[in-house]
Amino acid sequence: MGLRSKDLLGLEYLTRDEIELILDTAEPCKQIFTRDVRKLPTLRGKTMVNLFYEPSTRTRTSFELAAKWMSADVINISVPASSVMKGESLKDTVRTLESLGANIIVMRHSAAGAPHFLARSVDAAVVNAGDGAHEHPTQALVDLFTIREKKGAIAGLKVLIVGDILHSRVAKSNIWGLTKLGASVTVVGPPTLIPSEIEKMGVKVSYNLDEAICDADVINVLRIQLERQKKGLFPSTREYVSLYGINRERLKRAKSDVLILHPGPANLGVEITEEIALSPCSAISEQVTNGVAVRMAILYLVSRGDKQRDVAY
Amino acid sequence: MLLIKHAHIVDPATGIDGPGHIVVSGDRIESIEVGYVPEESFDLVIDATGLTAFPGLIDMHVHLREPGFEQKETIESGTRSAAAGGFTTVAAMPNTEPAIDNAAMAEYVRSKAQRLGYCNVEVIGSITKGRKGQELSEMNDLVGAGVVAFSDDGNTVMNSEIMRRAMEYLRMYNIPIIAHCEDEFLAEGGVMNEGLNSTRLGLKGIPPLAEELIVARDVMMAERLGARLHVAHVSTRGSVEIVRRAKARGARVTCEVTPHHFSLTDDAVEGYDARFKMKPPLRTQEDVLAILEGLQDGTIDAIASDHAPHTVEEKDVEFDYAPDGVIGLETTLTVSLTNLVAKGVLSLSQLVEKLSANPARILGLSDRGLLARGAAADITLVDVHSERVIRSSEFESKARNTPFEGFVGLGKVAYVICGGRVVLDNGRIISR
């Protein structure tokens, strides 16, 4: 089996089997880290374009590394927000990329749905690397992979997602992925950062982290954008930290084997203290490593189209 | 002299709903006849067997885009579109560039429409200069130039003091304010209805409250000041409820709804297709049901298209970046016949009230919206049973941004007579 769609636009559109296929494929990919020569011929002759309309270090680099280790040719295009405002149309950019013969386009964009727009008009496989407040499917797959690796299985786990759920594409993708794989998800944050009717996505909502933290197996901590405070979404960073910051004191209420994730980049000392981020219960640096493995699996699966599955390494 | 024979006449204003002949002399209706009419004395005879005759339809909420945005639509193309859709009168909103905020601008639109228009064009003046919500437009001058209503449509007059003064000033005339109700702070940056779908799609939502707060404010103000208020494009259950209660209290309040708001929900935004992006945004099934109820019980007086043309290029971009608005002149009648009359929400006569008689009454067009001796010879003849597939490629409008592409519905406009002249003949535009 393979993926049903040529594109990876969001976890909402994937079945449980497809998600598991990606995670299973990522496992052997991870072994390449231990090799002397980190090079596979899998994507030789294929061209991957990193098309980033928003700044990114981790996601862009891990896609680039994943593609290079599989011998693809990589083009990086960073489009500053200013040229979008000047009216450079996405359609135009897409036509250019098509003419250059791109096979895979990895796209990050501040407008939700932009990758869908792109996917409709190109033959190349489109991988969503984050679109507005919609989805960030590859990050959620990394999180799922990391949880599975650390906890053995995802079904039955209690997972908290803490912070700015309203603006978080990572939260949305995690919710789809975790609920499809049988975890029970609670989103935690101030009411102003919890989007409308999110409970209809199959999650519980809590405003009280100290209460919710007690029986959590996993806590996924989201980055809090400090500029949200200026828009009146919460009164002050200080108050946010006092209610939702992950620190040693608060973790005393949690299970001893609780697993902490953060999609990065973290505001250390705000949503999470540096001490906890670097502690044994945190898998934050593991997430970065896993990011390459999971993205190798994704690039392999989308590049393969409907060809029969074979070994990825 | 023109004779329309063997039509089925539906005219709520006079209560006619049955077979008859319409005799037209010059730009006026001479008589409605039931018995035999000798044809020899007429210059032109239209055999309307199988067709239904309505008083010419009136769309009280249209953006003709001229001057300033002629790439989207012009007075000429917009009125062609109107005629093709069965309309004999449209009211043009003042959000042009420059805005219609002074008599010269109003006269420009009227004279251009007289020269190039395919139907009557009434002009709506802006409430405030430049539609900026700060200073009142020269309303007396605008009334002198023939405007039929005032609106800053597209913008809300957020400053309650300015809105109050506008309502007070208009006591001198019997002219309504048409209110675009959207709290601009609550709606800021929003591109669709706020709810499960906006959460799923990651698009910024516009809460129903953004509309309802301003509807409530304007209704309270109009009641207190004795002003005439017409609420444009209601989209939520709460707005319908506010207007219903105000009417029960005797307030001078009317309102309209668009075909997309009584037909579609925010589920349509799923594919991020900007043809489903407009303000107010598409809401939920619960809102649609409340709107249908409001149409049925008379809370909602009028159906208006909010025809808002944009170029294909402007609309075919990321959802966030596309301009708001959809077109509707060539789809309103079909969508209404299909989703309201065929489904038993409204009788044909009630539909004609909302598409002709009531808009005429609200805008003070006393000789329109009815088929009676002395009334304007504005007549729409429709084959109400004929099936039609909506295809934007066939539109007379310059724009293609319809949310009803591929809609299979009922009703073909066969003839449009405007001011006694045949504008649309057998579905084809033949003259202005």
Descriptive report:
The complex is a heterodimer of chains A (313) and B (432). Chain A is α/β, with parallel strands linked by helices and 313 residues long. Chain A has 2 domains: 11-134 and 288-303, Aspartate/ornithine carbamoyltransferase (Rossmann fold, 3-Layer(aba) Sandwich), CATH 3.40.50; 137-287, 3-Layer(aba) Sandwich (Rossmann fold). Helix content of chain A is 39%, strand content 14%. Chain A has 13 helices and 9 strands. In chain A, helix 7 (169-180) links the parallel strand 5 and strand 6. In chain A, helix 1 packs across helix 6 (137-151) and helix 1 packs across helix 13. Chain A is globular. The two termini of chain A are 17 Å apart. In chain A, 49% of the residues are buried. In chain B, the strands form 4 sheets. In chain B, strands 1, 2, 3, 4, 5, 16, 17, 18 and 19 form a 9-stranded mixed β-sheet that branches. Chain B has a 4-stranded parallel β-sheet with strand order 6-7-8-9. Chain B has a 4-stranded parallel β-sheet with strand order 10-13-14-15. In chain B, strand 2 (16-25) and strand 3 (28-33) form a beta hairpin. In chain B, helix 4 (160-169) packs across helix 6 (208-225), helix 6 packs parallel to helix 7 and helix 7 (237-248) packs parallel to helix 9 (285-296). Chain B has 12 helices and 19 strands. Chain B starts with a strand and ends with a strand. Chain B folds into 2 domains: 2-52 and 376-429, Urease, subunit C, domain 1; 56-362, Alpha-Beta Barrel (TIM Barrel). Chain B has helices at 75-84, 103-116, 139-144, 160-169, 196-201, 208-225, 237-248, 259-263, 285-296, 312-315, 332-341, 348-362, and strands at residues 2-11, 16-25, 28-33, 44-47, 52-55, 57-62, 87-92, 120-125, 149-150, 177-179, 192-193, 205-206, 229-231, 253-257, 302-303, 379-389, 408-418, 421-425, 428-429. Chains A and B meet through helix 5 of A and helix 5 of B.
